[in-house]
Amino acid sequence: MPEIRETRMRREPNRQHAETREIDAVVIGAGFSGLCALHRLRDGLGLNVQVFEAADGVGGTWYWNRYPGARCDSESFYYCYSFSDDLAQEWEWSSRYPEQPEIERYLNHVADRFDLRRDIRLQARVTRAAFDDASNCWDVHTEHGEQVRARFLVCAVGCLSDANLPDIPGRNSFAGESYHTARWPRDGVGFKGKRVGLIGTGSSGIQATPVIAAEAGHLTVFQRTPNFTVPARNAPFNPDDQAAIKRDYAAIFDRTRASIGGFPYFGIDRSTLDISPEERTKILDELWEEGGFKFIWGGFSDIFTDPDANEIVSEYIRERIREIVADPETAELLCPYDHPYTSKRPPIDTDYYVTFNRDNVSLVDVKSAPIREITPTGLRTADAHYDLDVLVYATGFDAMTGSLLRMDIRGSDGVRLADAWAHGPRTLLGLQVAGFPNLFTVTGPGSPSVLVNMPTAIEHHVEWIADCIAHMNRNGQMRIEAAEDAQDAWAEHVAEVAEHTLWSKGNSWYVGANIPGKPRIILPYTGGQPQYRERCQAVVDAGYEGFEFSA
Ligand code: NAP
Fold first, then answer.
1. At residue 5, does pLDDT exceed 50?
2. pLDDT band per the 50, 70, 90 thresholds, residue 18
């Protein structure tokens, strides 16, 4: 994305590394997954590990997404690592939903506390990795010419890290400033007095809108698909609450591992249709007041599967929109009708809908009048031109596969991952790909990943991978690979389970619908975390059933 101004990176001279180092494992990425993998493989198993990270700092998602208003939608006390009780006890979160700088500080603290930095190479984007069948090792190359040979390749590249910049005609002609939310400049952006255009109303756009509106001269939000969002109700962390959580941390983390979505509260098995409308509204009112993801997980269990139940909750949210937004036409435009609630990843917001009551904010429907082009002075839709000084792309990611496919990964017999996945990704449990021995994906496609509180999903995968490598070392095995038939069976199961849910119904990044030409396939496993964990454990108990080893 050359024309997008982004986080400035100190460019290193183009280092040439003539020698190939031989190590045990390469980990790609130094975000939540990569840091965890390095700690577990190096300090738990004693492996010689090298992490390569494209950015000039650790943090992954929380390094890149520094746009105004960026904060986590999961609550701070469980959106963190559970692997160290000392870490959990010593870290103090300031508020219910941590802002991006706080999570970035947390991950930097983790890097220091566990002495991880000495094995992390920053500004080292991996461009190519090729499996050598003769040695059962991966040859991994970075953009600056560094090359290492490793027995294992652990892709900890994140599910949402390959920013999607839509190919709008004239994009490069814009004379003003343009930014993608996932490549935000470290020094920030000044909006004072400026005419700002923002494309996209997913989680990023919905978080950025109120903050940009508070500073800009005028903000125009270009909306293609309205989204259902629920208030976060952020608040400072009360010290007594934090102390109580710390006393109970082990049990809290146990609950995150046992619940469907990785949250420390269990979903309630209650049908929307079995109770009176009055009782239902009372429950929804309470959840709306409490805010956050509990609105999804703590209300009614049938919203994920039953279209009628889902419509009741969808209409409840539309009623709140009509209540909050003063102009009825704008309110109606903000009401989603084209997808069931939660079939697109539901955002959590702070003052999103009420922002449209400001005089300096306008909403433009680019579904009925699509964006035609970007011009040197702004943006043209089918029926108007909007003069702009700043253009913000909150247009999301090539989710779950983009960052893997951006690298040139070649498995056994030189097969390219891009070819193996030409019709969509196929994995065994989201952990391995047939034909790509000794390569592991942390929260890869086909695992619950993005439908689970991410640190919980990540720690589970890192544990599984570390246990698998320990098993191989104990048994003198050099090579592990997903069997083709086991992978096919898993892919079929992932697709079949999704058909019984509403997740496969929306045009969302969950199914790759946001990227033109991307095969439409449900990317995460929708069967829930407990079932998935059981399956992973059963595979291990049956001697890594479905995986093939060789000595
Ligand atoms: P997103 O959910 O994919 O939203 C992208 C938005 O851009 C959509 O409204 C999309 O419209 C619009 N768009 C894309 N191309 C367009 C075009 N050519 N013309 C007009 N509109 C276009 O991306 P995101 O908001 O960055 O969020 C992605 C995911 O990241 C989230 O779902 C969430 O999982 C994660 N995230 C989490 C947090 C958090 O925890 N706080 C914050 C931000 C993001 P359509 O819907 O019509 O395609």
1. no
2. low
pLDDT bucket at 505, cuts 50 / 70 / 90: confident
| Residue of the CA atom closest to atom 46 of ligand 1 | 225
On the question of pLDDT at 4 being above 60, the answer is: no
The reply to whether ligand 1 has any atom less than 6 angstroms from the CB of 345 is yes
CB of residue 342 inside a 6 A radius of ligand 1? no
- pLDDT at residue 14, rounded to an integer: 42
Element (H, E) at 27: strand 20-28
Q: What is the rounded CA–CA span in Å between residue 25 and residue 414? A: 20
Residue 58 to residue 62: CA distance in whole angstroms: 8
CA distances from 398 to 93, 418, 440, 523 (A): 31, 14, 20, 11
With pLDDT > 70 as the criterion, what percentage of the chain qualifies? 97
- Burial label, 538 (beta-carbon count in 10 A; 0-12, 13-18, 19+): exposed
Angle subtended by helix axes 249-258 and 239-247, to nearest 10: 70
Residue 480 to residue 113: CA distance in whole angstroms:
32
Whole-angstrom distance, CA of residue 105 vs CA of residue 102: 5
Query: Which residues have CB under 8 Å from 431's CB, separation 6+?
Result: 440, 441, 444, 447, 461, 464, 465, 482, 536
Residue keyed to tokens 């923002």:
198
What region, left, alpha or beta, does residue 64 occupy, with left being phi > 0 and alpha being psi -120 to 50 degrees?
alpha
Pairing of strands 49-52, 20-28: parallel
CA of 225 to the centre of ligand 1 (A): 10
Cα(201) to centroid(ligand 1), Å: 6
Is the pTM for the entire model greater than 0.90? yes
In this structure, the strands spanning 361-365 and 371-375 are: unpaired
- H-only helix segments in 398-545: 402-405, 417-420, 454-474, 484-499, 529-541
Bridge partner list, 149: 22, 139
Mean pLDDT of the chain: 94
At residue 340, the pLDDT reads: 92
What the block records as the tokens of 208 is: 């950025």
- Paired residues of 163 in beta bridges: 397
Which amino acid, 382?
Answer: A
Percent of the chain with pLDDT over 90: 90
What three-state secondary structure class fits 89? helix
